[in-house]
Amino acid sequence: MAWCLWLSAAAVAVAQQRNFIACPMVRDTKTVPCFLAEYDGELYYLGIQQDITAPFHPPQLKHEVLVEGRVVEGPRICGGIPLQPLSISVLKEVNLACDTLLPAEPGIEAPPADRGPGPSSRPLSLRTAPDKALTGRQEFTVLFAFNDDYVEFGAGRVVTDAAAYARKIGASAVTVTGSRATTLLSNGTRLVERAGLAEKRAQDIATLLRGSGVPSVSVDWKKEPEPGDGQTDASRRRVTIFVIP
Q: Which residues of 11-46 are buried (b: 16+ CB within 10 A; e: fewer)?
């Protein structure tokens, strides 16, 4: 009986996961634009337009996006089903068909934003050290979009935290390990990140650490892509920073 319940729970988890490639859509509202994507006849909510400090970065039109997230129970947002946690990767290839703009509709409003798009009277809060007191060997994980080596704002803060900790304790060694991964889509298709990407990610992060005053940085990477399970694929596109006292 126990194994039947486990299989049932696993099946529900898989059914709630949505990994797909689609054109992003922009819905106008009376406050800020909402971003959505359609898959299998349903609209999914991706996020709203805010500034660079927000965890969600609006995808570009004229490009498809890889959407990876789990369905959240509850009301729709901007007319779409919310996904959380959510990973959005903009694909490099241009697709001119990805240009859908949806008009504002009565009753469909954007959720409140901590900071709206454009200039703000409230200054950015940039961390220069870890939020909590750290001791001993520590691991910092820098995540990437699919098939990309660009270090986004949030990922850059992780590097800043790692560098600050390494300097604070006078680390004896800092090891950087890069990975690339496979993404399993909901339709069964497997997408594999390009060869050489794990090395490029690791070398880039090592360069940032050295530029932040961390001298003893060694670099390693995994040549083979990590397998995709359709559940945790976004977390495997990473560079791991180990700071050793």
A: eeeeeebbbbbbbbbbbebeebbbbbbebeeebbbb
Contacts for 67 with CB less than 8 Å, ≥ 6 apart:
18, 19, 20, 21, 22, 37, 39, 44, 46, 83, 86, 87, 88
- 16's tokens: 């709630």
- Report the C-alpha gap between 180 and 143 in whole angstroms: 10
Count of domains for the chain: 2
Closest by Cα among 70, 59, 3 to 35: 59
Total residues belonging to the chain: 245
Range of 30's domain? 17-102
Beta strand pairing call for 190-192 and 24-27: unpaired
Is residue 131 assigned to a domain? no
Are residue 160 and residue 209 in the same domain, yes or no?
A: yes
Longest dimension (CA), the chain: 60
Is 55 within 8 Å of 154 (Cβ atoms)? yes
pTM value is 0.86
Question: 92-129 pLDDT, tens per residue?
Answer: 999 999 999 999 999 999 998 766 555 554 554 544 44
User: Tell me, what CATH number does 225's domain have?
Assistant: 3.30.1330.60
In a domain, 122, yes or no: no
Q: Let me know: does 63 contact 41? Beta carbons within 8 Å.
A: no
b/e 78-96 (16+ beta carbons within 10 angstroms → b)? bbbbbbeebbbbbbeeeee
Last residue of a domain, one of 51, 82, 102: 102
237 with 155: CB under 8 angstroms? no
Instruction: Give domain status of residue 168, yes or no.
Output: yes
